[in-house]
Structures are given as structure tokens and as C-alpha cells.
Amino acid sequence: MSESVKFTFKIPILGEPGVGKTSLVQRYVHNKFNQDYLMTIGVAPYSRNIMSPDGHRITLSLWDIAGQERFSTQRHLMFKGSKAAILVFDLTRPQSLANLENWHKEFMEVCPDASTIIFGNKNDLTDLRMIEKEEAEEFAKKIDAVSYLETSAKTSNNVAEAFDIIGHHIYNKNIKLGHV
After folding, report:
1. β pairing state of 43-51 and 57-65
2. Most buried of 3, 81, 121, 132, CB within 10 angstroms?
3. Which helix (H) or strand (E) holds 47?
């Protein structure tokens, strides 16, 4: 197949308000970082093309989902058709990791066959860090996540790699299942 063959995979980005979901996706898609907190209202769609290891073009349709409780009734509708979810927590806020279990459960109720990946964001704030890597890795294993990566939207550390990992995973999974 040629490079023009295109696959599109929907991936919502989930987590508590202020963990850096918008900053991560803006860093990945536009290579920009805004220091100021901007609350997402509902959903903000983004997309970025990557290449599969075998040369096919993949479009990652990234849905930056609002973390505020008042948007929770709409989220199930936004999850439909997703092939994976990115679960994001803030390495300086332990409760944001604890709450990922609820985000994971809510997502899997709608998309039980989808994959998940976990991003521990704000790894540039080493002095404020409150969550050890082993704790997050244990949670990732518990929910059978594809991987756990530590990222920084501010410095761009691991951002492209983390998004690309889930994109390639979805592609390979769908090839094996014969869905693409």
C-alpha cells in the first residue's frame, strides 16, 4: 500500500481539570505551550498525521475533553467510536492519579475494546513531584494500559513519543484484528 492510504483513529484525552491535557495536545499538534490555564469547554478537537512503521498515513483525531464535572453527562457521547484514550494526571497532584480510575471506568463502559495509555504530566516540576514512577506504573499495569510515560508539555519532554506510541499501537492492533 502507498503513503496515501489513510487511517483515522479517534482518541479522547481524559483527566482532571488542570493536569495539562490541553497543553499536551497543543504541544504535540502545534509545538506551542501556553503557561496560562485555559479551561476547555466541552471538547476541543485536534488532529495530527503520523506514519505507521510500514509507511501508511495515520490521522490521530485527538479530542481534548473537559475535565469539569459539569460536562460529565456529555462525555459518553464524545467517547463513542474511540479506539483508545489517553489518561493524563499531574505528577504534583496525587488525587489526579487516584481519580484516573474513575476516568478509565467511565471510558471503558462506552468503549470496552479500546486501549488506554497513561501520561504522568509535568515531569519538569521535579521539586514538587509527589507521585513515584513505580506507583503510576503499578496503576498502568492494574488497568492493562499500553504504557505509562512521563511527559512535560512545558519542555516537550516525551510528548511526541507518547502520542506516537498510542497511535502506532492502535494501528497495529487494528491490523491484527483485520479492521483496517
Report:
1. antiparallel
2. 121
3. strand 43-51
Q: Which of 139, 147, 143 is nearest to 98 (CA)?
A: 139
Helix (H, G, I), strand (E, B) or coil at 1: coil
Q: Which of 44, 52, 58, 40 is nearest to 12 (CA)?
A: 44
Backbone angles phi, psi at 147, to 5 degrees: -165, 165
Instruction: Domain ranges for the chain, please list them.
Output: 6-177
Each residue's pLDDT tens digit, 39-67: 565 677 899 999 998 888 999 999 988 76
Superfamily assignment of 6-177 in CATH?
Answer: P-loop containing nucleotide triphosphate hydrolases (3.40.50.300)
Starting at the edge strand found earlier in the chain, the sheet holding 84-90 runs 43-51, 57-65, 6-14, 84-90, 115-121, 148-150
CB 59 within 8 A of CB 48: yes
Distance separating alpha carbons of residues 105 and 84, to the nearest angstrom: 13
Alpha helix segments (H runs only) across the chain:
21-30, 72-79, 94-98, 100-110, 133-142, 159-177
d(CA 96, CA 16): 6
pLDDT digits (tens, 9 = 90+) for 101-122: 999 999 999 999 999 999 999 9
The C-alpha cell of 141 is what?
Answer: 499495569
